[in-house]
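Suppose a colleague, Dr. K., hands you the sequence of a protein chain of 303 amino acids and asks what its three-dimensional shape might be. Before reaching for any lab equipment, you can write down a predicted structure in token form. Begin with the sequence itself:
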Amino acid sequence: MTGFSPPQKRGRRYWQRLLIFFVGLILLIPCTLGFLATFGLAFNYVMPFRGTVVRPSDLPPTTQDVNFIGADDLTLRGWYIPPQNGTVVILLHGYYNDRTEMLFHALHLAGAGYGALLYDQRAAGESDGSQRSLGWRDVEDVGGAIAFLSGKADTLAIAGCSIGGQVALRAAARYPELAAVFADGPAAVSAADLPPADGLEGQLTIGYHSFVDRLVALQVGMSIPPSLMDTVSQIASRPILLFAGEFGSERFYVRRFQQAAGANAEYWEIPGATHCNGPYTAPAEYANRMLQFFDNRIQSHTP
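The predicted structure, expressed as tokens, is then:
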């Protein structure tokens, strides 16, 4: 029979290429999913976290509903408690929260005669803003808070939790008007704040966070700010109080922040606590240490 050719035998190279193709396909699927998940995480970081904030009944009767202008002409909303001792502490909440996260601090400070300004950060709670930025843009908003408090206090200080703690430290480095800073579990600014890589896992962790930083910077249209490790030393001789929970990894990098800040920084590791839940696990000692810090150290600096 003419025109008929028997099937050719497939050689080793054919099967090697086929194997490489399927292995590549198998690896491509999780890599693609991982990239999409990372992009989604970065996108979630900049999404607004808005919502109605209910005023609690246990705020002092002198508390005022206030708003002021932050950076980019954004209106930021919060509560202001006038001081009895001439000092107001600006209070900054964590990332997925609003001003109510700082009620514990505000109530204890007010009970000791301090004033407090607790407000929703940009694109959170009831404040304006279409994007969050891992706290990167929020330092300039603190400048608006300082302007709002002009003439209302003799001395200003600042305190924050998590991202709020990071912003508080960076704001203290920028604004000499802030006489003291307290930060509970301050979050890293970027991957540059993470401890040095220990082995392959550590290198992958830093690489992953560096990639997320770049995605966030691209979405918010700004450069990644200097690391907190490079910033805390600029607070100079003003007092710093750092808290960290006993459980989790934050105690390792908060300790590094203390060392970078120098002799003016105090540190307490909260027994039994995780990230920023010291007011619930050790409320009495937490409040006492915070108040003693402001009582004893804030008078050592005159703006």
